[in-house]
Every structure is written in C-alpha cells, then in structure tokens.
Sequence to fold (141 residues):
Amino acid sequence: MDLIVDYLQSDILPTDLDQACKLKRFATRYCLVNGYLYRKGKSLPMLRCLYLDDASWALDEDAKQFAQSCEAWQKTANLYHFSQERLSSISTPYPFAIWGLDLIGPLPTTPRQAKHAVVAITEATGGSYWWKHPVRATGGS
Fold:
C-alpha cells in the first residue's frame, strides 16, 4: 500500500522495470483524497484503504454497531440455550450390539478383480434368511 501512496503522491517508482509497469497499471484503480488512499469502485462509491491496525478497529466498531442494531440478536442474547437436565450417557449400546460387519474371503476372483465380500449382519437378517435369499452384486458380476 505504501508503494501506491508513494507513486500517487510523488511519482516514485521501483527500480525494477517489471514492478514499475505493474505498479502503474495497479495504481490506476486508486486515488488519494486528503491524504487517504481510496480504491475506485465500478458501481460502488470509493472504498477507503486501511492499514491492519485501522482495519481491526473498524471491524470491531462495525460488529458492535451490528450487534446493537440487530433485533433478533438482542432478543436471544441473554437466553440460556442449554437443557436444564443433566446429561447422561447411553447406558447400553443396544442398537449397535445387534449389528455386525464381516469380511469373507478370499473368494474366486471376479471379472472386476474382487476377492473379498463385506457382509452386514443385523438382527432381522438371521443365518437362514441369507441362504434362502442370497444377495447378488449388480453391475455384471
């Protein structure tokens, strides 16, 4: 940002020719008004360029202003959003106790080079069910 200000105030360019050309092209988007650097917008008003310290102060001020003017935030800011009951862990992992995954194989190699099968077992799919209704992979194998 200092390079742009130096160029716009007193036509000071870097010694490197490539950097000087880039700075000239880049500086056309900016202007100085009362010692402050502004970026020219296409459809927006001129935007003031800030250094890091000024930018953090401006963001803090904008956040305060937004928080004070936001009606929804003001209504819910002081509410306690957590449950009033004590949290308790699940005493039994029952839903997961009846599930199971198994890897079977090695099987004869398929045309897609698959040698193993992953089988999901639940309470509803007992052993005899699988033999009556075998699951077949779709897609050619």
User: Anything to note?
Assistant: The chain has a mean pLDDT of 77.
